[in-house]
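How a chain folds remains the central question behind the approach discussed here. No coordinates are needed to read the tokens, only the vocabulary itself. For completeness, the protein is quoted in full, as a sequence line and a line of structure tokens:
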Amino acid sequence: MAAAPMLDSFGVDKLTYEIFSILENKFLFGYEDQKILLSEKPEIPVETLKSGKNFTGKVRILSIDGSGFTDGILAGKSLAHLEAYLRKKSGDADARIADYFDVVAGAGSGGILAALLFTRGKDGRPMFTADEALRFIVDNRRKISPSSPAGSFRRIFRSSKAEKLFRRTFGESTLKDTVKPVLIPCYDLSTRAPFLFSRADALETDGYDFKMHEVCIATSADPTVVGAVEMKSLDQRTRILAVDGGVAMNNPTAAAITHVLNNKHEFPFCDGVEDLLVVSLGNGESDSGSRNLTPSAANLLRIAGEGTSDMVDQAVSMAFNHAGVNKYVRIQATGFNARKCPKNSKPTVNGEALLCIAEEILKHKNVESTLFRGKKIIQNTNSEKLEWFAGELINEHESRKTHTLPTVIFKQSSPRTSSATVSTESSY
């Protein structure tokens, strides 16, 4: 085999050479034996080696819903619980959500949480812990939440305050300045189609790189009051008229899974849902007994978003059930009335009341979609589901230390030294 000396001259490691030899024999010379003998190693099926099974791990996906009656607080509280479990089980007091996920997708308030948890700070670590991100959402809910009650003038004024808040929080950070792949949707009225802010696209060209404070404005822009928000990419070439990401994909779980399965550059060995670990965080559905059924634009938008989230959840759940794997967790709640919380003494719903309700939701059992059987109440509480998932994330994190091949291969943005950002490959 003339190729062998050439490979050695380039310093290719032994595993790479063996893989090359297998592929060359099988596809060029008709080699059909399903097993090979690696020097001083057990026999490994060719197809197993080709696919990377037992050599790579599972891609870990975090998805965060947009609209819901808790305005992002249920998802924020779930993330705070998850991060606390990760710190406890791993023994790392500084563990962050971003350390244990490969991809995050978030719409609306979920997009804001994704930005807070995955944007790189000055020290190179994520800007916010999960607790800090939750407090940010609670403290600034009146500024950033389109569902918070107020007159039109006050809500337009609130939009201006939200822009200042995001600009102050993220500064000049862009999509390139995230520690892991980020997907945040909005709806682009100029093309009448969903637009997905993507770190992977931003690293390819400035035409898809946007400032993080503008991304947060776009994914949370209330179309019933302020209309579309115009923004341009860093190089001014891409222009969009953005409205709330919930209009496009209130539950971005399916978008995140599709992104991973179709992105062989970054996730080369991920072939199906059996290669995924997914947690999807909802923000609560309206109490049917107290929902205002007046056919206003805002109410219809919320109802549509909740319905879409349920459909996506059921489809994803069916896919995992069909594949025979139990690596998908959904945290959601229906029928909770925030005005019943003892911490809420006002006629309107405040952030502390929603935080109280979020804590109660985590103590309750949820329903799950099952293949050909509709939905059923599961035995574990939402909090217990998060604790179990934290264990799965830690197991995956540790097992990667012994994997032969990388689970993900994506680009990391180098520190900014000029208007251009240089990227380098990084494997995990």
